[in-house]
Specification:
Elements (H helix, E strand, L loop, with lengths): L9 H19 L5 H20 L7 H16 L18 E3 L7 E4 L4 E5 L3 H5 L6
The structure holds zinc ion (ZN).
Amino acid sequence: MDPSGQSVSPLEQALHAARALVLADLAAGEVAAADVVSLVEDSVVQRRWWVEQWPDGVEFVAGLVAQDVQDALLERYGRWPLCPVCGSGDPHALEVEPELGADPHWVCHKAGVKVSAVGSLGSAAGGASSS
Ligand SMILES: [Zn+2]
């Protein structure tokens, strides 16, 4: 029961899901500090406006929020998320594919592999971390 009498719109559901997915990936990389969470909030605000202009883009917001946060982190902290697949060589960040599409994934272009869905980095990177 919603006391306001309004149901949650698909837009709000998509934004809420995008926020949760990106926060999960940030937590997996242990960078979910308060100021980083505010970067996610900033992106969600901007993407709400964006989807209001272009409702067909509602499926794309998770990938877009992930890329927004990645860009913001690059300016403040450095590369995120670091590739968990390549054990040697220069540390490098994963990239979101598709850049503008549904069902976004983190991809390592160096190894040419899909690492995980956006929101599932924790399970992708957690295999050997319990020593
Ligand atoms: Zn890699």
